[in-house]
């Protein structure tokens, strides 16, 4: 159970950033400190996500991943970078224009970006291909968010 704690705390931190932004979806971010804090938090989350591997029992070790394909070592970082770019860009737009529409867009980016973060955490645990599959849900979520609001 302790092995899951770092990933759980990472997802909890992400959830906090989305929740903090969502409280301003109607009024906009009149105080720009909050979007600045959530953007900083998102950057820290993205930096921590590909961090030290926490190999799951039954998952191949990082050494085995290198033998099978060195690109699998890059998967956690690549997925975390994609998470940061998409969600971070939306939050940076809130800093430039704190209107309710921009805040809602950032909240939507946070919600639909969660699979990329979860994929990075899964890949970090030693299941790179599964992490890619989990992260593959992010584009699907963005498409569905055009039909029905995620917030």
Describe the model.
- It is a single chain.
- This protein has helices spanning 5-22, 33-48, 62-68, 71-96, 100-124, 128-135, 137-147.
- By secondary structure, it is an all-alpha fold.
- The protein contains seven helices and no strands.
- The longest helix is centred in the middle third of the chain and has 26 residues, at 71-96.
- The radius of gyration is 16 Å and the shape is globular.
- It is 74% helix and 0% strand.
Briefly say what this structure is.
The protein has 151 residues and is mainly α. The protein has 7 helices and no strands.
What is the rounded Rg?
16 Å
**DSSP strand (E) fraction?**
under 5%
Helix count? 7
Class by helix and strand content? mainly alpha
**Segments where pLDDT lies below 50 for 5+ residues?**
none
Give the % helix.
over 70%
Question: What's the overall average pLDDT, rounded?
Answer: 86
Taking the alpha carbons of the first and last residues, their distance comes to: 31 Å
Give me the oligomer status: single chain
Q: Strand tally, please?
A: 0
Task: Identify the overall geometry.
Answer: globular
**Strand/helix succession:** HHHHHHH
Summarize the biggest pleated sheet: none
